């Protein structure tokens, strides 16, 4: 009880300080003036100095600031004049810089971004848990394990994808996914497996094509599961859950027996919270980025919804377990998502609300040879004009003549997806500038003990540095 009353007192002070500092800090973003910038040290001096036992670090992959704003429009209740807040809005504490250290690029990919998050080192694009000289760097997840905490990685992409990989493996290229899966099994901290809970897609890297790594995990006491029911029924404290061969389907398209991101997070928290010493959990809304790469606004809103639910649940967990810190941010922005394009001052989210499936889903169906009219009608929940269907048919025909291993296949696949998505991008008035990443600063959201460390405009490496700091002081 003493702990609780202390926390309440401190957190009220923390909130007051936080809001007054943010009021001061906000004009600084616009004016660039130095005088109002509060350093992290100053903030920490006012704020709570008690360390969190548990850390939930959340990455909205590709979730640039325009994604958070677009999602607010998307969630807005049209019957009220004001625009309602999203679950993120009350927890905005600042922004962060994302640039990598790369000899060619100055816009980051998810590997360099995740290595900055996990280790505090700027590195080159493609690097997984290694620095600019390809030297292994320690990650916060590994440090947590060294301290006797439990650890988890949860994602909607392949678990071997760059963001989770950079927490528990060390390799010169993100493309070496077989090797990343092997390292997940083989890497040990004090004779123990590095990660206790691994949930997401990417089953193909754990099966017979890659040395039956899933069976090895099973032999070592992990529950190995492949759908929501199995995940719910498993009761061990270690679990490997692989719910798709590659990336998990987007939430709007997923079958009911697929766990959502929030379900996987909840399963992870159930297990990790058993450890009295606490835990480190990384949760990634990975497919925000995947959908944005393909300029699929329906897919983006679907995945923002999944990530918001997980964030909201994480905040609820932290309110119930006061020894928990939640941080959510993005590694970069993707696609150059623009809220209103052309000359009209309108972004029409209601067009996206009418969609039944993502652009990705329709493209997959049509590429597999399914009926074009039926697929479009199922995805759009209405018939599209004959001319539009004709344009889609033309691109589908071109694609059908290219083999999947041909180097022209991906470009033609995107042309087909563009033709399919033209109607929703036009009706919603959504703009896109690239199929790649963009370099703007991203938002930081934080709540709980030591969240003050994340205030202001920080660097992406500060996420790891702050967490190491917390662990060093424990
Ligand atoms: Zn990306």
Automatic annotation (TrEMBL):
Organism domain of life: Bacteria
CC cofactor: Mg(2+); Zn(2+)
Pfam families found in the cross-reference section: Alk_phosphatase
Keyword field: Hydrolase, Magnesium, Metal-binding, Phosphoprotein, Signal, Zinc
Signal peptide feature range: 1-25
Listed CDD domains: ALP
InterPro entries associated with the record: Alkaline_phosphatase, Alkaline_phosphatase_AS, Alkaline_phosphatase_core_sf
Similarity-based family: Belongs to the alkaline phosphatase family.
Protein name, per record: Alkaline phosphatase
Originating species: Staphylococcus felis
